[in-house]
Amino acid sequence: MAAEPVESPEPSLEPLNWDGSSSIAVNDVIEYTCKGGMKFANDFHLDSIAATLLPGLVWDEPEWIPCVESESSIVAVSEE
């Protein structure tokens, strides 16, 4: 049986290792990263957080950390 990634309550996070159509199986791990060069609010060095699909199609969710603008994300947006 397959599932969809858990939806992050933080709109600034997006699934990093899911293409939007592949199935997700029990024990698969989906990593979430900040969009557009933003950084995790509590740790600018953190690259991603992860959720794991457990038996029963229940997600082991991470602590959802908000993303904040960083100097590099502001420069990237202004260059577009």
Key traits:
single chain; 1 helix; 80 residues; 11% helix; four-stranded antiparallel sheet; elongated; 28% strand; two-stranded antiparallel ribbon; alpha+beta; 6 strands
Please provide a written account of the structure.
The protein is of the alpha+beta class and 80 residues long. It has one domain (13-75). The protein is 11% helix and 28% strand. It has one helix and six strands. Strands 1-2-4-5 form a four-stranded antiparallel β-sheet, with no helix packed on it. A two-stranded antiparallel ribbon has the order 3-6. A hairpin with a 3-residue loop joins strand 4 and strand 5. The radius of gyration is 14 Å and the shape is elongated. 16% of the residues are buried. The model is unreliable at 73-79 (pLDDT under 50).
Brief summary:
The protein is of the alpha+beta class and 80 residues long. The chain has one domain (13-75).
Number of domains: 1
Separation of termini?
41 Å
Biggest sheet layout = 4 strands, antiparallel
Query: What does the oligomeric state look like here?
Result: single chain
| Helicity range | 10-25%
Beta-strand fraction estimate: 25-35%
Give the strand order of the largest sheet, numbering strands 1, 2, ... along the chain: 1-2-4-5
Low-confidence stretches: 73-79
Indicate the overall shape: elongated
User: What do the pLDDT scores average to?
Assistant: 86
